[in-house]
Amino acid sequence: xxxxxxxxxxxxxxxxxxxxxxxxxxxxxxxxxxxxxxxxxxxxxxxxxxxxxxxxxxxxxxxxxxxxxxxxxxxxxxxxxxxxxxxxxxxxxxxxxxxxxxxxxxxxxxxxxxxxxxxxxxxxxxxxxxxxxxxxxxxxxxxxxxxxxxxxxxxxxxxxxxxxxxxxxxxxxxxxxxxxxxxxxxxxxxxxxxxxxxxxxxxxxxxxxxxxxxxxxxxxxxxxxxxxxxxxxxxxxxxxxxxxxxxxxxxxxxxxx
Length: 257
What we know:
- The protein is α+β, with helices and mostly antiparallel strands.
- Helix content is 38%, strand content 14%.
- The chain has six helices and ten strands, in the order αββαββααβαββαβββ.
- The chain has helices at residues 10-21, 49-59, 79-85, 88-135, 195-202, 228-238, and strands at residues 27-31, 43-46, 63-64, 67-68, 183-187, 208-213, 221-225, 242-243, 248-249, 251-254.
- The strands form four sheets. The chain has a four-stranded antiparallel beta sheet. The chain has a two-stranded antiparallel ribbon with strand order 1-2. A two-stranded antiparallel sheet has the order 3-4.
- A hairpin with a 4-residue loop joins strand 8 (242-243) and strand 9 (248-249).
- Helix 4 (88-135) crosses helix 6 (228-238).
């Protein structure tokens, strides 16, 4: 069943679907989930194919919560049907195959997502660099300003703390917009977090290689992965994470190269 109202609570949705579909046969299972991928759809399992055929024919387009339902047969047998019709060994084989197929789809989705994240972050880094370059222009010469003394170049006055406006100076990209690479720079770590503690946090992501603490500097570390994909995933899932008894919010960016 597709095109279901996503704002309805799952328990309420399942209750309504059970009441409707029970009119056409014995419903032995009904699956509806809250995750993003499965929202707006449900699986209704009858004990007989004929009951499913009648339901599809007569309920097709029926409005539930002001949305017309779209019905079709599922592509594979449900767990409930396999358990009823086959032995335990066949059921376990079916379940393992289904989970393996689900894992393959998840891996493909994750790969596409990481590629998209990589493209977005590279674009942001490029735009930040271009913006910095535009800001680094020489100040205009004031009209009527006295000429500099012979042999001494005039100094452009600037307020305390301002960076040089020399157009030849290298533009500095903010940490948040650095292009992705396979090494993360982690800041604001609790003082009691050592390599083992950080490995427990960052070692969960694909291609983890090592954690390196910064000698003589508390609260700083580098985390290296075998490829950019692992670093992207780790950064996305740990940035803003709180660690330690004081719940310190860690800052995770890419290493400046």
